[in-house]
Specification:
Layout: H1 3-24, E1 40-50, H2 77-91, E2 118-123, E3 126-131, E4 137-141, E5 158-164, E6 167-173, E7 194-202, E8 208-216, E9 225-233, H3 251-255
Length: 266
């Protein structure tokens, strides 16, 4: 085939592909969204505070002699049983249930609770959050798209957002089981988990975002868990590359391939 004919054929194929994509997701119309003022690097301030007294307890890897055990989270059935199994293993130094030991990301909502900073980016119809820890990326769609019947569970799930004034309200579904809730909270949850977030800007900058999280899991939780934390703008800071596999000398990683702990059987 002559080069000119080949070029025309390739161009035609690209046009067809572009048309198919445009039919699935129409290009969002540019319009002002408050997140345009959020672009930059942010860092978590302090520890999460429970709104209704339902604190998500961390499961300490070690506990001082005589110290009381951590409070039991509102789990039920086999998920509560698995929680006690995990807690007993960690107390013995058994890190098989620590997915991070095998360099697997915490996912959502755990990635929003790291001590590492995150960067917020904005584009029409989408807010993107890039966490420094393990380079995790999540996309919050504000263009009206919804998850489809073939949407697979992932570490960060499928996030759909809408604006209520200057507040971004996000609902995330299609999360993998056993994502981290906190940086150290090993809670066995199910793929029925729904995470609802509210990003509430404070001040004119804004330089502070109040972040409210509600976890609902009809299979694993006896009631929703609601928490609040704050993110503060980290001016003059750029997120860095974070490669977990580099110099990872954890014994779990050396003994077995990276894999998620098995979820409770259905």
């Amino acid at each position: 085939m002559p080069l000119r004919q080949l070029s025309v054929a390739v161009l035609s194929m690209l046009c067809v592909a572009s048309g198919a994509s445009a039919q699935r997701y129409s290009a969002p119309v540019w319009k002002y969204e408050p997140a345009q003022r959020w672009v930059g690097v942010w860092a978590r301030s302090g520890s999460p505070v429970a709104v209704d007294g339902t604190q998500i307890p961390n499961v300490p890897k070690t506990r001082l002699p005589g110290a009381p055990p951590p409070p039991v989270p509102p789990l039920k059935g086999k998920y509560l049983q698995r929680y006690f199994t995990i807690r007993a293993a960690l107390a013995k130094g058994d890190m098989r249930f620590d997915a991070a030991a095998n360099c697997l990301p915490p996912g959502l909502p755990g990635m929003m609770d790291m001590d590492y900073p995150m960067e917020i980016l904005w584009s029409p119809g989408q807010v993107t959050i890039i966490a420094e820890y393990m380079g995790q990326t999540r996309r919050i769609y504000t263009d009206g798209r919804k998850p489809g019947p073939d949407t697979d569970p992932t570490f960060t799930g499928f996030s759909v957002g809408h604006w209520e004034g200057d507040t971004l309200v996000v609902e995330t579904t299609h999360l993998r089981a056993n994502v981290y809730v906190h940086a150290q909270a090993y809670l066995p949850l199910s793929e029925a988990l729904t995470v609802t977030e509210k990003f509430i800007p404070i001040g004119m900058g804004p330089d502070v975002i109040r972040y409210e999280t509600t976890l609902r899991d009809p299979l694993a939780l006896t009631k929703p868990i609601v928490e609040v934390k704050e993110f503060h703008r980290a001016r003059g800071y750029s997120i860095m590359e974070s490669i977990c596999e580099e110099n990872n000398q954890d014994k779990v990683d050396l003994a077995s391939p990276a894999k998620l702990p098995a979820a409770p059987s259905k």
